[in-house]
Amino acid sequence: MKAMTADRFREFETFVCVVESGSFSAASRKLDCTPSAVSKLIDRMENRLGVRLLHRTSRSLALTQDGKNFHQAAIRALEAINDAEGSLMHADAPVSGLLRVHTTLNFAQQQLALLLPEFLEKNPALRLEFILHSDAVDLIAADIDLSLQVGPVTNPSLVAKRIATTRWLLCASPGYLRRAGVPKSPADLVNHNCLNFLPQTYRSVWPMGAQDDAGIRTSGITRYELTGNVASNSDNFLKVLACQGMGVARLAAFHVAPDLRAGTLRTILADWLPEDREPVFAVFQSRRNLNLRVKVFVKFLEERLAEAADWGLTESSADRLSIR
To answer: What is the pTM of this model?
Structure first.
């Protein structure tokens, strides 16, 4: 096996920096060299490997399929070196400074607020700033160290580390179910007021077990686009409306667990929901040179959220809280 020479390391580092920066000029500023030096190094890599890694135009760069594969391999190689050094350099290092975190308001309120006292007690020299909204954010432009996201991460230039999972539940208040009746199958939802996310978003589609003409569940999944008299981009707003008896909402387990335990909400159609779980990701710019503040916070969340794997709702408790 060939050793990783200094020149080879420089190539890997430069290539990954170009991909993450989006241009030779932006990468050159980070690497403290000229754009032409970056371009020549990429040309040298492509000639040595015998493949084209990047499609170049006067205005943009795009990875080829070989480039995508090599990009992931280069990241893994650089991560291994960084982790090896980090395990020695940060073994006893105190954590201090500012950590800026982006996530949704309800995830911060329902989960992070409960965990922060313990985390900050262990890391008293650390300061945290939370940017709380559900919109996509440019981590570099907003100077954000870490984003905590539920669901798919669509930006291929970011690193997404899964730290937990959650289920999606259909919920309504006991009062609403007394008035409107309890749906027995997904087909019954067309007769209910469904409090949904705004149209054309992936959360506005409710996947549930398919059923045949006789109403018997089959092995497939049907994706329902249901509507009611209110739609929103805020799951917290939809939850409040559901608690007020306005209709049925599809919400994450971590979000509604306290309301289910309190009896403010009940789950419905539990047997019709798919078993798939939605990932919760810690998202950051790169594993290379990842600061210790991010590493420590992500590790803490990974451990604590794993301990609360179902957000306090075991399968048996979920059964007791559901109306079938």
So the answer is: 0.63
